[in-house]
Amino acid sequence: xxILVSWLRDFVDVTASxxxxxxxxxxxxxxxxxxxxxxxxxxxxxxxxxxxxxxCMSVAGxxxxxxxxxxxxxxxxxx
Length: 79
Prior knowledge:
Largest sheet: 3 strands, antiparallel
Distance between the termini: 23 Å
Order of helices and strands: EHHEEH
Mean pLDDT: 94
Low-confidence stretches: none
Number of helices: 3
Strand order of the largest sheet: 1-3-2
Radius of gyration: 12 Å
Number of strands: 3
Shape: globular
Structural class: alpha+beta
Helix content: 25-40%
């Protein structure tokens, strides 16, 4: 599942670099298929989400897991 890091930051105030996020989540069981920088300074992380984790098949679900990994609170983005 490909996710922009800026989208994740809409849900959690993680200050870690995209590389640190990918490394941390990989250790926690979410294999990272690729990490691609974008032209505007953002990055796309491609996580492999297993079938037994349907709760993580959305940006909000992955943000929740990242918040747990880094000990941060989550929030709902302003619409």
